[in-house]
User: Fold this.
Amino acid sequence: MREFFRSRFFKVIILVFALLLGFMIYAISQNGFGAVSSQIIGTVTAPFQKLSSYISETATDFFGKFVNAEEISRQNEELRQQIAELRDQLVDYGEVKRENDVLREQLGIKTADPSLELVSAAVVARDPAEQQFGSFTIDKGTQHGIHNRDVVITSEGLVGVVTEVGAYYSKVTTILSPEVKVGAVHPDTGEVGTVSGTVALAEQGACQLSYLEEDSQIKKGDLIVTSGASGLFPKNIVIGLAGELQTAEHGISSYTTVTPVFDIKSVSQVFVVTDFDGKSQEGENG
Assistant:
C-alpha cells in the first residue's frame, strides 16, 4: 500500500486532481458553481449527443429511401396508366381517322357513279405464290354480300377481281395477273382494247393494252378506263396511263403498256363493287 502512495502513477493522479481542482476553483470564481456544473455535464454528455444525432440522421436517411422509393413507384404507375390511356386515345383517333378516310373515298366514288354498291375491306394478307402480281386477301366475304368475280377498286382506280370467296374472306387477283382481262377504252378517241397482265410487265407494276387499231391515236400519258361493255366491270373506272404505242408482231394491230396511277402491290384498303348499272349476271371474266 505504501508502495502505491509512493509510486509514479499515484503522483500523476494527484497532479491531475490538483489541476482539475484548480480549474474548478478558477471557474467558480469567474462564473459561479452552476456554470461549472453545466460545463462538466456538457463535456461528458456531448459525445453521446453527437452519437445520438448521427444515429437519428442515419435512420432518417435509411427509412427515407424506402418512403421515396414507394412514392417514385406510385408516380411511375400513374405515368404508365397515363401513357396507356394516351395510347388508347391515339388508337381510337387512328381508327376514327381511317374510317373517315374510307367514308370520304367511298363518297367520292359514289359521287362519280351513284349506281355502285360498295363494301369497304382491308387487306389482311398477301399471297407469296403470286407476289409478283400483288394478289391479296381481304377481310370480307359472302357474309358481307361479296361474290366471286366482283370487281375491286380504290378511289384512284381499278385493282382487280375477287377470284375466291369465303364467308369472312375473299382472295383478290389484280389486273397485273394474266388471269384478269378487262375491256378498256380511251375516253377521248373511243378506241377500245383489252387490258391484261404479263409476267414481264408485272415486275414493273404495269399491264398491257392489246388489240388496238394499227393507226391508233393513243399517246403516251393518255388515260385508259374500263369500257363496261362486257357487263363484268363498271364503266369509266380508271385503269392507268398509256405508254408508247407499238405495233404487234403480226402487223395488223397495235398495243401499249398501261401503268396504274397507284401502286397496286401496296394497297391496304379497297372497295368491292357488289352491284352497278349494267352488271352482267354471268360468272365469267372479261
The two ends are 136 Å apart (CA to CA).
